[in-house]
Design a protein that fits this description.
The chain is mainly beta and about 240 residues long. About 0% of the residues lie in helices and about 45% in strands. The protein is built from no helices and 22 strands. The strands form six sheets. Strands 1, 4, 5, 6, 10 and 14 form a six-stranded mixed sheet that branches. The relative contact order is 0.14.
């Protein structure tokens, strides 16, 4: 479970700690500020600069709230839009620079949301869950409309994609397999740009005919090359992850 750092508004000395959907924690401001618009900045990467913000509006014994990506911190901070055009993402969805950004920085419905934020080392991609808060021990907070921040995660590696639901971690930019071929001792040497370990790679070939199918040649569990006998017929080769 990830922890969240909340920065209380100036003049507010205490708050009530609640659990959000069993994931993490949020803050409900004390009753002294009912009737006023309040906010809770959320510092996702704990660098002292808020990245998300919960905005509260108190009314007649109830509370409404939205979660907003804080563009005031940096203009690059944005909500992301899924390929289907929705603001909410499915667990396991990929977040990267190919996604469009939302013209609306806030959300008021539960779900998983992708966002990006600018830190000192670059642009980071991450996600957060939004939902209605619970009292400690269970039970929804009554008269609460809207959502607050639940769990979250982001890629510690700047400008690298991340997956919705993955805890905060360093996930490097994937390196595509690049295949090269040379002739060594009368045999064809296939080589690629990274070690096959730990999951291994499959080497496949096919005839040059447009209707030919790929045929298994060999599994390589480690290393970055394989020598094959091409025979007397022209063929194509490829390397795929196992």
């Amino acid at each position: 479970m990830n922890s969240l750092v909340f920065l209380l508004p100036e003049g507010i000395r205490s708050a009530h700690l609640l659990r959000v959907s069993g994931f993490a924690a949020c803050l409900l401001l004390p009753s002294a500020v009912f009737g006023q618009l309040q906010s809770n900045p959320v510092d996702v990467n704990q660098d002292g600069v808020p990245d998300l913000i919960e905005r509260y509006q108190y009314f007649g014994g109830g509370t409404s709230s939205t979660v907003e990506v804080l563009k005031a911190t940096h203009s690059d901070n944005e909500l992301l839009i899924s390929p289907s055009g929705d603001a909410a993402f499915a667990l396991g969805a990929s977040l990267d620079g190919n996604l469009k950004t939302s013209s609306f920085p806030s959300v008021s419905w539960g779900g998983y949301y992708g966002f990006r934020f600018r830190a000192a080392d670059g642009l980071h991609y991450g996600w957060f869950s939004a939902g209605q808060p619970h009292f400690p021990g269970g039970g929804f907070v009554p008269n609460f409309i809207g959502v607050v921040v639940g769990s979250h995660g982001y890629n510690l590696v700047p400008d690298a994609p991340f997956t919705v639901g993955t805890p905060t971690s360093a996930v490097p930019i994937p390196i595509p397999l690049v295949l090269k071929a040379s002739v060594v001792g009368g045999r064809l040497r296939l080589s690629w740009n990274r070690d096959a370990a730990p999951s291994g790679v499959l080497v496949e070939s096919r005839a040059l005919r447009p209707d030919a199918s790929w045929v298994f040649v060999q599994t390589v569990s480690s290393g970055s090359q394989l020598d094959v006998d091409p025979g007397g017929v022209g063929r194509m080769y490829r390397v795929v992850k196992n």
